[in-house]
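Structure ticket #2291
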Amino acid sequence: MKGHNNPPPLEAMSLHIEDLFALVSGSTAAPVTNDEQEAALDALLDDVRKARKDADAQRAAEKKPHDDAANAVQAAWKPLLARLDMGADALKAALTPYREARQRAKNEAARKAREEAEAKQHAAQEALRKSDDLEARFEAEAQLKQASKLVSSANKIDRSATGLRTYQVAEVADRKALLQHVMRTDPDALADWLAEYARKALPAQLPGVTIRIEKRAA
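Resolution: structure written out below.
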């Protein structure tokens, strides 16, 4: 059958790697107790490393045409997308001042509407409290309804679209306060960050850090 004696690289490497795994599994079941066992495992480690290198090289070779094609597509479209992003940013920058001014006007209109509504509500409630005259009470109730409409109008002003989007931007104003908060509420995250910081600083010695020397199989 065609391809039987020369299987595809992935299939051939898969068979070889599975054989190596079987050897590793059988060879590591018991601890090493003599030089012969050490030499055998060291030779097997060399085989595993070579297989890893060969497999990765074959993967890279098979992937390269796809990477080249993808990079070519990316390179062709990237300038166009960048120009569109730049254009969008320029348009947003031009629109923002006008929309901010419109937002301020809207906020002012809503504020005035609420103040008017509150004044009418207060006056109507006072009229209802002080008057026993049916006609006066009827008029006061009408004023209360009108005040309720003004409140609804103010709420509609608040809900109207302005074309602005709200973003949250975190700025650390007090590092010490933030650090103390993290130490109280999420010490593990802080410990992980500090451990990574100390690792990146090696071989430098940092305050509060102990450097431990470990020996591992090469």
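Closing remark: The mean pLDDT is 86.
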